Automatic annotation (TrEMBL), chain B:
It is found in: Cell membrane. This is NADH-quinone oxidoreductase subunit J. The keyword Zinc-finger does not apply. It comes from uncultured Acetobacteraceae bacterium. Belongs to the complex I subunit 6 family. GO terms for molecular function: NADH dehydrogenase (ubiquinone) activity; oxidoreductase activity; quinone binding.
Length: 637, 232, 473
């Protein structure tokens, strides 16, 4: 069961990837879906046993590296944290596999797509069940690879290739810090095995490296690594571009699972992070800033998938600052609920795009709600959950995050709370902007497109409906376990709150207006959106014209790409040009060219000795022998 | 005194003839000098008290190997002058290298030392008690050294296989004696009483039935069938 | 005297006799069944080797330890795989005579005797038992002038090498009064000044063994013999004899002569560096792929000998890992080369591979894997082989050696990758014949090993570590 949950997707990927051509496209698709279903069943059973019955387990698979004093094993570490992720990943992934069967039906090479998708799932599961940092890094890079492959799935589009490379390169920056962090962990603890690290943390709190506290430094480095994968402020630029991939990919990788790996990492390292208060402050600050920053951009974007992408970015910010104030459980809870409603929103968007003949610009949609009622309904549910309207999933988790931020009673906690409230307002606003522009008003698409609008097939709708159920109920059902009264028993030590950290208790004792605030601002946001886009549809354009600078600033995503272009890419290119023209062409190429001609000469010389005459060969042997004997004789003196 | 004199005499001849093996222009002379060298080496063994080895050397090397060499050299028409073409060109370099090696080895021998316990370690000294040379070797060859003995046997086996594999050719056209078939054939020899005075002209030539014919149900005696087998 | 310790060798020798007898009797062509029987005998021997106890036998002439077991298994693997490569080729070339398989069996046995040798006399006999069949199989295609020439050249030079070995052994015996390795070790560890005669003797022995592993400057025969010999024989040349001779070299130098390491280390350093440099540079100009593989094998021997030259625990372990990986990438490469046929005729130019990427993507893919592995590109197995010997060299402080190793592996990457380029980017003259199933299986098996070694290196590393510890204990 434990092994099956992880390895069934690999089996599916193998079947679909290597044998897809032989067994045919349909068989490949359904076999990978079948493998995913099996994995999901295993995942659910594992969740029931590990998380609900509190019976964590570690399954050894064998030795990986055994060099000198350094030992690494392949092992699946199933504690509650891992079990939650495994259950969530396998379930969402299964639904998305199923959805893809419909969505990719017009594609040329579905087996390749399903192989990548299953491979991604396997890598993600390796990541979350890792027993040591190296295995986690294996999964970490594996999902990066799968993400690259999937973003660039339509490799004949230049934009897709560029986006894939951007995602990979930006992630590399984060990975660099991650690797530094792992190296420092090994330097400090002499091991990268989780249980050994966590056990040893208290003894190493005083260690320093280059004059800095080692634990703090590890925390910061690992967080920077997490930033890359989870698209936090500074390293977020790849995520919107990643929407070039097929929509199921956006739903699975860039909303529900892979991007949450960073949050997972911070929670996984909670026993260590607890001893790094400054690192946690940084986490809170960056998370809160991202939450607000991404929400502002989301308000003016016009591509339906990009809006949801920025929303993802923003929600990840929430998770980070929740973890930053020490409420890892809350972060995981939001991660869990978010997976449902964000996957739902993406798949809903995919359904819209499918219906609109691959149109993604919401300015060219509108008035289609009656033609695709199911999609419309699930988009509503997803948006309600995202905005944190009471009794939908997002309400429980987002409220808990804001309560935790408030309860932190620190400067940065207050900052996070304010950012969070503002972001909640903006979230509601852009969600309804999207809903209204997409489904209501006058149809703005051409007639040909309007004529073709159709509801998606059952194979796509079924996952949507299931996810909708999750988006409604996940918060209510699991609140008690994740953050409520059973919290301690549920997590069973897989997340550690240090003795000085009472946040999980304090967050339930905040003033009464705090839990109400997000709901109120969300309703206000909805009202504003309704006013601007339903009641007075001309107003937004006038507003944009009134403050053009602000509008362009937001539309161009705070000019982050341009900034990077100026600061990093441009100078890097100029430097590269210098290196290329002088360093490469003259020196580096010069050396190998010279060396190559030298080598060719040496080669000819060596070959010329080879005369083919036995006597010469024997003579060469004797000369060699005499040479060695002489060498020894000379050395003797 | 006599022993020492004999040793130096044989050793000198041995070295001289060895040098001649390498340098003489006529290959037949080379082989003859080789035989001389073997004899001298055998004599040295005799002086050292190893009669068995001396006899083996004479019997195997002189009696078999060297004679075989001689046959081969005399039967094959090898143009040795052409083979020596490169010799002149490389001679100076070869001489230098050889001289260096010689000097080095001379130095090595000059500075020779023994390990402390080399004397005790010497392999299997002659057993006391009037045991003959051959017997002494036999005692250890099949006991202490059986592993090496068998390995040497395998080396010879492989050499034999190799020689056969590389030289034996089965020509498709050749016929071989198949003794079993010969004996198994019926009707090859028939005794008949012939009337006196009758010649071949009247009796006809009697031939043995061909193998093909035998395989068929044997026909009744082919008595006067002048054509016999073979025509089909 | 516990002769049962040598059971693997005895069983193999008797099996060889039985197969020989069984092959002579029937009139029909017995190459295939004889080969299968030989492979079976080798497998049985391998099982016996795994179960072999440790100790010495025959008055100290024979030794069995984990080092010998490791190397014997590699030797057997080399022999069995070499024979598998020959199955199809020999039939097609009209060389399907059962003696071939028997000779391979005895060559493998010779290798095993060498690996287990604990006495200079055993060493010599093992070497001869290994060499004689090699001379014969090199000339096995006796109607082909190149093959006969290869056999003859190898024979003449091999005889010279044997002479050197015997001369060296006699010098050593003269000094120590014994040929047994244990006694030699005792004599040398007495702490006295080693006689020059002894060291010169060691130099002679090194020269003879270096000849067998084709290390510079005793490599001259290699390209000619590799090119002339039938291709599966070339593959065999590159495996079993090398493993056995390197094992013997390691055992002789690190065992009895370990205490005088300072005396021979310099020589081994030069041999190793010379081999790496020559293997890298001389192969660049080669057009014939068998000749190219000859230089490649010289280079690989250079890397492996690095492990001997540093004379340390890590070095020896690196050597063992290197040999194991070397065997498995080499056999795969030769499987591809043996499969190179066009219109029923064997071809052996590098250019004959042109266009293989399109005409036979499977074979081309495996070949690419082997080439990348040979070039030492991570994450393939070849990278790890090099990694461990380089690590040992660096740890031992042999910076020059490690630098030369890295530089030459860069140079050698050129000609390995050129083959990949030829396969995928050059215009072909026509498709090669389909590879027979036996070769495809060998390719796939060794190719997977090269690809997946990174996931499960532990068993080989552990075995090599234990073997190295056994020898240096």
């Amino acid at each position: 069961m434990f092994v099956g949950a992880v390895f069934f997707p690999l089996l599916g990927a193998t079947i679909s990837g290597f044998f897809g051509r032989w067994i045919g496209s349909r068989a490949a698709q359904w076999s990978s879906v079948g493998c995913m279903v099996l994995a999901a069943v295993c995942g659910a059973l594992a969740f029931a046993e590990v998380a609900m019955d509190s019976r964590p387990a570690t399954v050894g698979l064998g030795t990986w590296i055994d060099v000198g004093g350094f030992e690494l094993a392949w092992a699946l570490r199933y504690d509650t944290l891992a079990a939650v992720m495994v259950a969530m990943v396998t379930l969402i992934s299964t639904l998305i596999h199923l959805y893809s069967v419909g969505y990719m039906s017009h594609d040329a090479t579905p087996p390749r797509f399903f192989a990548y998708l299953s491979l991604f799932t396997f890598m993600m599961l390796m990541l979350v069940t890792a027993d040591n940092l190296a295995q986690l890094f294996f999964g970490w890079e594996g999902v990066g690879l799968a993400s690259y492959l999937l973003i660039g799935y339509w490799y004949d589009r230049d934009s897709a290739n560029a986006a894939a490379m951007k995602a990979f390169i930006v992630n590399r920056v984060g990975d660099f810090f991650f690797m530094l962090g792992v190296a420092l962990v090994f330097l400090t603890f002499d091991s990268i095995d989780f249980s050994e690290i966590f056990a040893a943390v208290p003894q190493h709190t005083g260690d320093t490296f280059l004059g800095l506290n080692s634990i703090e430094l590890i925390g910061v480095l690992l967080f920077l690594g997490a930033c890359g994968k989870s698209a936090q402020l500074g390293l977020h630029t790849w995520l919107p571009d990643a929407m070039e991939g097929p929509t199921p990919v956006s739903a699975l990788i860039h909303a529900a699972t892979m991007v949450t790996a960073g949050v997972f990492l911070v929670c996984r390292m909670s026993p260590l992070m607890e001893f790094a208060p400054n690192a946690l402050t940084l986490v809170t600050f960056v998370g809160a800033s991202t939450a607000l920053f991404a929400a502002t951009i989301g308000c003016v974007q016009n591509d339906i998938k990009r809006i949801i992408a920025y929303s993802t970015c923003s929600q990840l910010g929430y998770m980070f600052f929740a973890a930053g104030v020490g409420a890892y459980q809350v972060a995981m809870f939001h991660l869990f609920t978010h997976a449902f409603f964000k996957a739902l929103l993406f798949l809903g968007a995919g359904s819209v795009i499918h219906a609109m003949s691959d149109e993604q610009d919401i300015r060219r949609m509108g008035g289609i709600w009656s033609k695709i009622p199911v999609t419309y309904a699930v988009m509503w549910i997803g948006s309600l959950a995202l905005a944190g309207i009471p009794f939908f999933a997002g309400y429980y988790s987002k409220d808990a995050i804001l309560e935790a931020a408030f309860a932190a009673h620190s400067l940065v906690g207050g900052y996070a709370f304010i950012c969070g409230i503002l972001a909640a307002f903006l979230t509601a606003f852009y969600s309804w902007r999207l809903l209204i522009l997409t489904f209501h008003g006058e149809p703005r698409a051409d007639e040909h497109t309007m004529g073709h609008i159709h509801e998606s097939p059952v194979v796509m709708l079924a996952p949507l409906l299931l996810l909708a159920v999750g988006a409604v109920l996940a918060g209510y059902l699991f609140y008690d376990f994740f953050v409520g009264e059973h919290e301690h028993a549920f997590w069973a030590g897989s997340i550690v709150n240090a003795a000085h950290n009472h946040i999980m208790h304090d967050m339930h004792e905040v003033p009464a207006w705090v839990p109400l605030a997000p709901t109120v601002v969300a309703v206000l946001g909805i009202a504003l959106a309704y006013f601007l886009y339903m009641v007075a549809p001309g107003l937004p354009a006038r507003l944009a014209a009134a403050v053009p600078a602000l509008y362009r600033f937001l539309l161009n995503k705070w000019y982050f790409d341009e900034l990077y272009d100026r600061i990093f890419v441009g100078p890097a290119r100029r430097l590269a040009a210098v290196f290329w023209k002088i360093g490469d062409v003259r020196i580096i190429d010069g050396m190998p060219n010279g060396a190559a001609s030298l080598a060719a000469g040496a080669s000819r010389g060596a070959v010329r000795i080879q005369t083919g005459r036995v006597a010469n060969y024997a003579f060469a042997m004797i000369i060699g022998l005499v040479f060695f004997v002489s060498l020894f004789m000379l050395g003797l003196r | 005194m006599i022993t020492a004199f004999a040793f130096y005499a044989f050793a000198a001849v041995l070295i001289a003839s060895a040098a001649m093996v390498v340098t003489s222009r006529n290959p037949v002379h080379s082989v003859l000098f080789l035989i001389l060298a073997f004899f001298n080496a055998a004599a040295l063994f005799l002086i050292a008290g190893a009669e068995f080895l001396a006899m083996i050397l004479v019997i195997v090397y002189v009696g078999a190997v060297a004679v075989l060499f001689l046959f081969v050299v005399m039967m094959l028409d090898v143009d040795f002058t052409r083979m020596r073409e490169g010799f002149q060109r490389y001679a100076p370099l070869g001489a230098v290298v050889g001289a260096i090696l010689f000097l080095e080895l001379a130095f090595v021998i000059g500075a020779w030392t023994f390990a402390g316990d080399a004397e005790e370690l010497r392999l299997s000294p002659m057993p006391a008690g009037g045991v003959s040379n051959a017997e002494a070797i036999g005692r250890i060859l099949y006991t202490d050294y059986v592993y090496l003995f068998q390995a040497a046997g395998l080396v010879l086996l492989v050499a034999m296989i190799g020689a056969i594999v590389l030289t034996l050719r089965e020509r498709p056209g050749t016929r071989r004696q198949d003794i079993a078939a010969q004996i198994g054939r019926a009707g090859t020899v028939n005794l008949r009483a012939v009337p006196s005075g009758a010649g071949l002209a009247s009796l006809g030539i009697e031939r043995p039935p061909s193998p093909e014919e035998e395989r068929r149900p044997a026909p009744v005696a082919v008595g006067h069938d002048g054509h016999g087998g073979g025509h089909h | 005297m516990s002769w049962t310790l040598a059971l693997p060798e005895i069983v193999l020798a008797v099996a060889g006799l039985a197969i020989l007898a069984g092959g002579v009797l029937p009139k029909r062509d017995t190459f295939f069944p004889a080969s299968m029987a030989v492979v079976g005998a080798l497998l049985l021997t391998a099982v016996l080797v795994i179960g072999q106890e440790e100790g010495t036998a025959f008055g100290g002439q024979y030794v069995s330890d984990s080092f010998s077991s490791f190397m014997k298994l590699l030797t057997i693997l080399g022999g069995a795989l070499g024979l598998l490569l020959a199955l199809d080729w020999n039939e097609k070339e009209g060389l399907g005579r059962f003696e071939f398989s028997v000779l391979v069996l005895y060559a493998t046995l010779g290798g095993m005797v060498m690996v287990s040798a604990n006495d200079l006399m055993t060493t010599y006999l093992g070497l001869e038992l290994l060499s004689l069949p090699l001379y014969v199989v090199a000339a096995f295609n006796r109607d082909d002038a190149r093959s006969s020439e290869a056999g003859l050249k190898y024979f003449v030079l091999g005889a010279l090498a044997s002479g050197l070995l015997l001369y060296g052994a006699s010098l050593i015996y003269g000094f120590a009064g014994s040929t047994n390795f244990d006694r030699l070790a005792e004599a040398l560890s007495a702490g006295q000044q080693a006689s020059p005669g002894l060291v010169v003797g060691i130099v002679f022995v090194i020269a003879a063994l270096a000849f067998k592993v084709s290390a510079v400057p005793f490599h001259m025969w290699t390209p000619d013999v590799y090119e002339g010999a039938p291709t599966p024989v070339t593959a065999f040349f590159a495996m079993a004899p090398k493993v056995a001779a390197i094992a013997l070299l390691a055992r002789v130098l690190l065992g009895p002569f370990g205490d005088v390491a300072a005396q021979w280390q310099q020589i081994m350093l030069l041999v190793s560096m010379g081999s790496m440099v020559l293997g890298a540079f001389a192969a660049i100009g080669q057009r014939n792929i068998k000749r190219l593989m000859a230089y490649s094998s010289i280079g690989h021997v250079g890397y492996a000998l690095m492990g001997v030259a540093v004379a340390s625990d890590e070095g020896l372990r690196g050597l063992l890992v290197y040999m194991a990986i070397y065997i498995l990438m080499n056999v795969g490469t030769f499987a591809v080369i043996v499969a190179m046929r066009r219109g029923g005729r064997a071809v052996e130019q590098v250019d004959d591979l042109a266009g293989l990427g399109r005409t036979d993507p499977g074979t081309a893919m495996w070949m690419a894997v082997f080439m990348f592995s040979m070039a030492g590109i991570p994450p393939l197995a070849g990278f790890f082989g090099k990694l461990y010997v380089f690590l040992a060299a660096v740890q031992g402080g042999f910076w020059v050696l490690a630098t030369v190793g890295v530089l030459t592996s860069v140079v050698s990457a050129y000609y390995y990758l050129r083959i990949v380029k030829v396969m995928y980017f050059d215009q072909g003259v026509g498709a090669l014949d389909r590879a027979p199933a036996s070769l495809s299986v060998v390719m796939a098996g060794t190719g997977l090993f090269n690809l997946l070694f990174i996931l499960w290196p532990a068993p080989i590393l552990a075995a090599a570590g234990a073997a190295a510890a056994a020898l240096l204990a």
